[in-house]
Amino acid sequence: MLKTAIATLALVATSVFAGPKVAVDTNLGRFVVELNQEKAPVSVENFLKYVDDGSYVNSQFHRVIPGFMAQGGGFAKDFKRLPTYAPIENEASNGLDNDAATIAMARTRDPNSATRQFFINFVDNDFLNYSVTNPGYAVFGKVVEGFDVVQKMGQKPTRSTRGMSDVPLDPIIITKMEKISD
């Protein structure tokens, strides 16, 4: 009876923080991210707007740095910059760290400039975390399935083109992105 109660509590504890899941199909394979609405409600709502409007489909991971991260969602296959909604508030102080397999909002030097671009950390990137002296980058979820697909991105050769560096030689394209659970 005690084992059953402990198992039930463990199941409840893990599902309390479970948020929507989004499946991301790429030309390298599929991965799934689980979003944290509790700690990053603004970032999750923003990300889901782009998922729901379908505008991540046929976008590319345009910046891939081995041992660091893969960034995408902002450019079409032909490097045309994709339209954005208004920038959002930086939620980097939410207690979620830029650990391996987490997904975070990309931004400019302005902490409150994130729109549609996101990145996935290949490794723990503590220097991207919020602190009193660093506005940080807002983590809003984690890859829960298919992290090996994400890691493949970091093994692809890159080049400089169109004023950008670390661009995969063979484009890594998002072929489908959809919410698979609420």
From TrEMBL:
Residues 1-18 form the signal peptide. Residues 25-179 form the PPIase cyclophilin-type domain. The keyword Isomerase applies. Transmembrane segments: none annotated. GO terms for biological process: protein folding. The keyword Phosphoprotein does not apply. InterPro entries: Cyclophilin-like_dom_sf, Cyclophilin-type_PPIase_CS, Cyclophilin-type_PPIase_dom, E_coli_cyclophilin_A-like. It catalyses: [protein]-peptidylproline (omega=180) = [protein]-peptidylproline (omega=0). One of its GO terms (molecular function) is peptidyl-prolyl cis-trans isomerase activity. Its EC number is 5.2.1.8. Keywords: Isomerase, Rotamase, Signal. Belongs to the cyclophilin-type PPIase family. PPIases accelerate the folding of proteins. It catalyzes the cis-trans isomerization of proline imidic peptide bonds in oligopeptides. This is Peptidyl-prolyl cis-trans isomerase.
